[in-house]
Amino acid sequence: MNSGKKPLIYVDHAATTRITDSVRAAMEPYLTTVFGNASAAYGAGRAASRTILAARRRIAAVLGCRPQEIYFTSGGTEADNWAIKGTAFAHAMRGHVVYSAIEHHAVLHSVQFINLLGMDSTAVLPEQDGIVTEDAVDASMREDTRLAAVMLANNEIGTIQPITDIARAVHARGAVLFCDAVQAMGQIPVDIPALGADMLALSGHKIGAPKGIGLLYVKEGTLLVPLLDGGGQEMQMRAGTENVAAIAGLAQAIEDAAQLSAVGHLRSLQTRLLDGLRMVPGCVINGTTAPERRLPGNVNVSFPGLDAESLVLHLDRAGICCSAASACMAGNAEPSHVLLAVGCDRETAASSLRFSLGQSNTAEEMDHIINAVGEIVSRLYTESRAFI
Ligand SMILES: *Cc1c(COP(=O)(O)O)cnc(C)c1O
Fold it and tell me: Per-residue pLDDT tens for 268-279?
């Protein structure tokens, strides 16, 4: 295992990111002097409460919604759970939900939960290139469909979904659309009016804010029941003393991410890495090869016959932090549901590596990764042939 002493090449930004300097500076006062409870009537409390209001306004300005439509949560997972379960509770567990088969586990497992309580659901499969079409969503809708859940960009293969078209189809059937935009923020525009989603989830730690903060946008008039009961925080919709420092950090991170200043840089790193890995014998590229349909920071490749977990450990020894498909299921050898859904066989899915790039990565790092992968893969293939 890499002890963390060697300079690391960190290419796992889809898993989490370092807190940026601007976010840290925005949080600092609320971690030290301005520690009041935002519900308190004295000055320090009012200062905290003003910061939360301002954060709501700043975020709403970026996303194109109203401040009162933003609810802070403990992260993307809570926002996903809330959108699915809160809608199901609002309909007393009657009716039907449609969701894409490549959603994050926070969505998939929430759907499983409401299934246990009696609500029906249908999974929509993407095309082989990882795109979920409006027609496929429409074909899965029923008379009693209340909700459709389709993510804006996939966390494993980076494919970007045609949310605007999907929203139109969902609305034509009288249902609401929930969109997990956690991976999209900072890499493509997240413009709520243009997307047409009724609910949308974001997470802080994927965009330079701390872990444990996120938000759910809920369009005014959308039926949703709170999951956390207690005090009257978040306009009576999400109880719990507000994490003021993290909220201030999230607002800063969202404003920074909206600049999309990293995109050109990410795109050129992506091209360089893909072009290099493509030349490694055995390499298969997962997801679409059309760049405009894929996040600029995402590269996902397989080396059929090899084991992704062991590739990750070999790369770790070479100072490279990347991920085997989805890192969410540590120790779970089940191949990725996303890769299976896009038609990968189990062998290809079980050998998949995800490199997710960030602004601080360099072209030299991409070349280093290509060389390291080339060496490790050819050694492992030779060893595995020696066993046959
Ligand atoms: C990371 C991630 C989440 C979960 O967000 P957390 O803040 O880590 O709970 C949900 N959806 C997607 C697409 C993600 O990448």
Answer: 999 999 999 999
Judge whether 328 counts as a catalytic residue. Answer: yes
HSE, side-chain direction, 13 A CA sphere, residue 21: 1
Tens digits of residue pLDDT in 194-246: 999 999 999 999 999 999 999 999 999 999 999 999 999 999 999 999 999 99
Q: Which single residue is written with the structure tokens 């699915």? A: 84
Q: Which residues lie with the beta carbon below 6 Å from any ligand 1 atom?
A: 75-77, 80, 104, 106, 151, 155, 180, 182-183, 203, 205-206, 214
3-state SS, residue 339:
helix
Distance 310 CA to ligand 1 centre (A): 24
User: What is the SS3 assignment for 333?
Assistant: coil
Contacts of residue 176, Cβ cutoff 8 Å, sequence gap at least 6: 87, 146, 147, 148, 170, 198, 199, 219, 222, 223
Overall pTM surpassing 0.70 (yes/no): yes
